[in-house]
Fold each of these.
Amino acid sequence: MMRIRGAAICGVLLICAGVAALIHPQFSYRVEQHHEQVAGAAVLFETRKVIRFPLWFSIPIMVIGGAMVVIGVQKD
């Protein structure tokens, strides 16, 4: 019977994060938002922060995750 350790679970999470970074290499989120009145109309100003994940980041994360899965799964 196989027993899954915490390292294997962390490895699966790292693999998922690496795949997500490959599929969607940039992530943006809102930093600041404020409303202004311009010529009688309400205008929404929004500042966003963009984070880009390069290819050299994604592939090692998946490799490390795979190694943790192999190490974390052991046979009894």
Amino acid sequence: NKAANIVYLIGFDAGFDPQQVSVVTVDITTGEVFHPNSTFTLPAQEYFYAAYTFMPASGKIMVMGVNGSNSSYFTGTDKTYILTPQITIGTREIAKNLYDITCYPNPAIDELNLKFNSKNAEKLSIDILDLTGQLVQQETKFTTKGIQTCSLNTGNLPNGYYLIRIVLAENTYTKSFTIAR
């Protein structure tokens, strides 16, 4: 969804037949991820090895070519589904603005800076995750009250897209950044 800067991913919950799916929403501006609590259960012997198309006019996703076999990608059916993503990204925006967290430069080369307004002397936990959700770097720092800037060494990270998870005053914030050399 280019207009909203959102990516939709089809998520599969545990289970084989019937298969359960949901639409996971990622805000690529902030890196915030929303996974809905509910799933859609496909009828027995139907599998989502299909093509997906976002339809901007309706804000829905069309799924074409649902498979009739779990053992072959070439047993498509004549079924099409229309999915409506649940979007609740931004519900914690008020809390985010309390700290005014920014990351720069983006894209980063060998260093990423965090700037924020700390309300008190607090513990700051920073996790950097790759796109698979694997933790690739972790740091803990301590802040003082007021405007803070801290630098993170990113020179050991390969080029790519990353999420930074920041825990400050028991609140978790997620931002995205890119390494490009």
